[in-house]
Amino acid sequence: MVTSKMNKDHSGKQENHAASSSPDSPPQKCVVDRSIHAILRASLENSNSSPHPPQPRPPQHTPSSLAGIPPRTERLHRLHGTSLLLDASTLLRLTPSTYATSCTIFHRMYHRLSLRQHDVWSMALASTFLAGKVEEEPRPVRSVILTYSHLYRRRRLRVGDDVTKYSYGAADAEAEGTATLSNEEKENVLRHVKPMGMGGPVYLEWRDVVFEMESLILKTLGFTLHWIPDSHPHKFILYFIRVLEIEKKEVAQDAWNYCNDSCRIDLCVRHEPEVIACTAILLACYDHDVELPLLPHPWWETFIGSSRNMDLSNVSNAILAVGDENDLDVRRAKYAFVPSLLEEPTFNDPDSYIWSVAD
Hints:
- The protein is an all-alpha fold.
- Helices cover about 50% and strands about 0% of the residues.
- The chain has 16 helices and no strands.
- It has helices at about 30-35, 65, 70-90, 95-110, 120-135, 140-155, 185-190, 200-220, 235-245, 250-260, 265-270, 275-285, 300-305, 310-320, 330-335, 355.
- Helix 10 (about 250-260) packs across helix 12.
- The longest helix has 21 residues, at about 70-90.
- It is globular and about 65 Å long.
């Protein structure tokens, strides 16, 4: 089923306070919200005149692809944005559920709007800020801004990346002198940077971006975000593992990590959370040589129904590809700064005011 096995980088750890579905209640909730926010939006063109039922719009037809952005470029920017969300959630000590909520908001926005309309830094900033409110663990806007400004400096310096081994060609966007500094010297530079003042023009520009994008997200998604925390694949992992009677704790941990990896790309928009949870368990069992029943029917059919083999295969390979750091796009998204695709430079693009005063 899984056609390729690549090196993987798990991006999170399981927390004791993570919630799981109760065996006494059905795992699916918020049916009404799911009907409003469809897994894949359907195209209803010619539905009245055609004798055939309307077909779902092909998954590659996102607003960005319709704006002429190649799929690989869109994937790069999604990976870049979600890597910021992961790093920010770690520094702000947010729970895995809040990180997953921020990723869901981020991906759903780019299924409504194009990368030529709004850059991923602005979207990630507001997604982190808004996810904290949705999950009832809000962080002050100042804390969010200082965290992202710190990440901004790290990405411009490519901290943690091997600049002598990896080059992104003409796409490189980095601070002057980055190639001559070691990682230790870069960390030393960051330690001596003074936090920005709350009344300064740089802080006010970051703050305006947060509030403007937060308002746009709420309007675009219809102010209905309450259902998101109950729709993460993490919610189903422990319940499914308990039903399958898997005793190895390592399987649960790795399945949880695979769920975190799934947040890096827009699987939460394309597939139901139960499918992603079953895929994470499948990959974790494969890693630990745990065999689950395939007869009289595969075990996952108990949770997601029949004829889902192709979905499991697609999700498996998509998750594994996220952890392949030999892929330059994956490395660039994780360690470097990726300029926006907007015609006019955004607030923190190269040659912007913030870029010039960031050091």
